[in-house]
Amino acid sequence: MTAPHPLIEQLTARQTELDVTTTALFRRTGIACATVYNWRAGRRTPRLQELISAGEALGLRLTWERVEVPVDGWEVEPDEQLPYGELVLDENEKFCSGCGQVRSRRDDFHQDRSKRDGLKSACKYCHKDRREQRARQAGEAAA
User: Fold this and answer.
1) In a domain, 34, yes or no
2) I need a surface site. Which of 3, 28, 69, 138 has the fewest CB within 10 A?
3) DSSP 3-state assignment of 117?
4) Cα separation of 70 and 113, whole Å?
5) Which residue spans adopt a coiled-coil conformation according to this UniProt entry (predicted)?
6) Dihedral sign, CA of 75, 96, 29, 3?
7) What is the pLDDT of residues 66-80, one digit of tens each?
8) Which domain does 106 fall in, by range?
9) Which of 97, 100, 106, 109 is nearest to 81 (CA)?
């Protein structure tokens, strides 16, 4: 378990300041109480839309500013791609743990109802590559 994100700490402080219960926050946003508790405990990181919804329900607005200083130890150049974090920017995309790319949720992932989001952690292409690799290894072992 890790410390909660600084934005979650700010949301929690604002929620306490306004004396808004987590149940009331759920009624305003539809974000489950358990989800909010997991954010606070550092077990989960919110998706961008959840962060925006929770902030707006508490009278806050998320804004973006260009900074000229390193972000968490990374030098950010204007044309450089930032390293991927846990925060998924689009609800239609998901990070593939196999190939390390952001892919389409609808087209590129097999379903897995045991997972929190209902999708396997690796994309269809990674699963296909693994199957082919196992078949080659089995063929080599049999020979």
Assistant:
1) yes
2) 69
3) coil
4) 39
5) none
6) negative
7) 666 655 555 545 555
8) 93-142
9) 100
